[in-house]
């Protein structure tokens, strides 16, 4: 194929064209650049490309062998329906993952659409269905861990799952709880998102109330005590806390402290219950002095750990609801002259990368956030397409990563308290 490129000639109100060659002998299956002319140019009007021609006569010049070039027509929904032996409406509903289309029909339609290279035009589809075919997610930059690396894997999982089904991910950001509501409202009003993924539900969550009132589909990464109109994917943090306590008890610890996560989040209620269940299963009674809440940062975890370890009967082991608080315990132990894994054991939850670089490496329960993103995207698409909230609820267990921060105790609580007093007095003098 030869494409003419315009070079203006200012002396005459005319223009010259120069050519750039493209191989026309290649099979038609190989990509070829095609320029659509506003008016057809017959072969008998072709002249050598060095000739000066009028601007009105030529919009572009293409030289090709008419008998060798075949331009394939774009497949449309009628082609898919004809090949599948069904109606265009069924094809449309199958491609949009409606729940009233059988899995067998969906599979056949998707396979035929892929074979024909059919993809619906997004603008036309949006006008016809009233959907943007986009999932909404508001990144809350005011959260304590909004900029952490695991967020990239979570968003990648959402995008990967959405793209596989022909959907997009629309992101917005907010710097306060109110601006989060504003961002959601704007995306809904401007029809830029058909539903929303809400991470880490709150005990009093205005996001949920807003979407529930507006009858807008949403799914939660986490659970809430009020199940009405809620779908979710969650990791069983309470099971992890229970298993951590039982594990430490079997190692020989009989005073086990607990540092809970953010009080405003629903997960803190579940994880507290898991800790209490672990104590009960191990034959221990809860001691309120060994429980401290609302620690989600390293600084907060350090303060909580110092409070626990300075008790007259300190815990020989601590379970932390989040890894960042556990890393704060490392700092507290160092300040008191203790070594994690030897003098005090700790097990946490999250599986953040920093835990593996701590010394000793932090024993924790890990969460696959990429998979979480994929599952949430799939659930939200199902909700948008008509699935009931109750049908889109799923939980999984966290993965226990045993490293080096949990070991049998080398001294009991009284001896640990004595060691801490001696260390503290020695450092003060």
Structure description:
There is one protein chain. By secondary structure, the chain is an alpha/beta fold. Among the domains are: 1-72, no CATH class; 77-120, 434 Repressor (Amino-terminal Domain) (Orthogonal Bundle); 237-368 and 400-428, Rossmann fold (3-Layer(aba) Sandwich). It contains 14 helices and 15 strands. The protein has a 6-stranded parallel beta sheet, with helices on both faces. Strands 10-9-11-12-13-15 form a 6-stranded mixed beta sheet, with helices on both faces. A 3-stranded antiparallel beta sheet has the order 2-1-3, with no helix packed on it. Helix 1 packs across helix 3, helix 8 packs parallel to helix 9 and helix 10 packs across helix 11. The longest helix has 16 residues, at 266-281. It is elongated and about 85 Å long. Residues 1-71 have low confidence and may be disordered.
- Please report the first level of CATH classification, the CATH class of the domain at 237-368 and 400-428: Alpha Beta
* Rg, alpha carbons: 32 Å
Identify the CATH architecture of the domain at 237-368 and 400-428: 3-Layer(aba) Sandwich
- Which parts are unreliable, with pLDDT below 50 for 5 consecutive residues or more? 1-71
CATH topology of the domain at 237-368 and 400-428: Rossmann fold
CATH superfamily of the domain at 237-368 and 400-428: Response regulator
Tell me the distance between the termini: 89 Å
Mean pLDDT: 84
Shape, principal axes of CA atoms: elongated
Short précis:
The protein has 429 residues and is an alpha/beta fold.
Mind sketching the topology for me?
Elements: E1 2-9, E2 14-21, E3 62-63, H1 77-84, H2 88-95, H3 103-116, H4 122-129, E4 134-140, H5 150-164, E5 168-174, H6 177-189, E6 195-199, H7 206-213, E7 218-221, E8 232-235, H8 237-251, E9 256-259, H9 266-281, E10 291-292, H10 298-309, E11 317-320, H11 323-335, E12 345-350, H12 353-357, E13 363-366, H13 369-384, E14 393-396, E15 399-401, H14 413-428
Parallel strand pairs: 4-5, 4-6, 6-7, 7-8, 8-14, 9-10, 9-11, 11-12, 12-13
Antiparallel strand pairs: 1-2, 1-3, 13-15
């Amino acid at each position: 194929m030869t494409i003419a490129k315009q070079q203006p000639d200012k002396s005459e109100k005319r223009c010259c064209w120069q050519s750039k060659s493209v191989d026309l002998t290649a099979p038609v299956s190989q990509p070829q650049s095609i320029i659509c002319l506003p008016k057809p140019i017959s072969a008998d009007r072709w002249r050598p490309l060095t000739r000066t021609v009028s601007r009105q006569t030529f919009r572009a010049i293409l030289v090709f062998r008419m008998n060798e070039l075949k331009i394939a027509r774009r497949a449309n929904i009628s082609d898919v329906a004809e090949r599948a032996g069904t109606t265009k409406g069924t094809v449309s509903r199958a491609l949009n993952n409606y729940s009233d289309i059988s899995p067998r029909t969906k599979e056949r339609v998707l396979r035929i659409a892929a074979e024909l290279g059919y993809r619906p035009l997004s603008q036309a589809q949006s006008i016809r269905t009233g959907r943007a075919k986009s999932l909404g997610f508001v990144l809350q930059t005011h959260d304590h861990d909004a900029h952490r690396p695991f967020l990239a894997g979570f968003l990648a999982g959402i995008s990967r799952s959405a793209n596989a089904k022909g959907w997009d991910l629309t992101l917005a950001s907010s710097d306060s709880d109110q601006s989060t509501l504003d961002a959601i409202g704007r995306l809904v009003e401007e029809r830029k998102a058909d539903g929303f993924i809400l991470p880490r539900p709150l005990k009093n969550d205005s996001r949920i109330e807003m979407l529930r009132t507006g009858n807008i589909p949403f799914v939660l990464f986490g659970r809430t005590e009020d199940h009405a109109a809620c779908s979710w994917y969650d990791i069983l943090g309470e099971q992890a806390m229970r298993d951590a306590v039982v594990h430490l008890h079997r190692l020989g610890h009989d005073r086990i402290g607990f540092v809970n996560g953010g009080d405003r989040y629903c997960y803190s209620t579940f994880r507290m219950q898991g800790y209490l269940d672990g104590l009960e299963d191990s034959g221990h009674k809860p001691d309120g002095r060994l429980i401290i809440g609302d620690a989600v940062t390293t600084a907060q975890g350090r303060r909580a750990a110092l409070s626990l370890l300075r008790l007259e009967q300190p815990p020989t082991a601590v379970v932390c609801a989040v890894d960042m608080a556990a890393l704060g315990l490392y700092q507290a132990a160092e300040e008191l002259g203790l070594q994690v894994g030897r003098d005090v054991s700790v097990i946490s939850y999250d599986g953040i990368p920093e835990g593996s670089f701590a010394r000793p490496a932090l024993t924790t329960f890990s969460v696959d956030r990429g998979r979480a993103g994929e599952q949430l995207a799939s659930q939200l698409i199902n909700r948008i397409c008509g699935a009931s909230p109750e049908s889109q609820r799923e939980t999984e267990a966290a993965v226990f990563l045993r490293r080096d921060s949990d070991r049998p105790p080398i001294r009991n609580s009284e001896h640990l308290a004595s060691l801490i007093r001696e260390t503290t007095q020695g450092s003060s003098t």
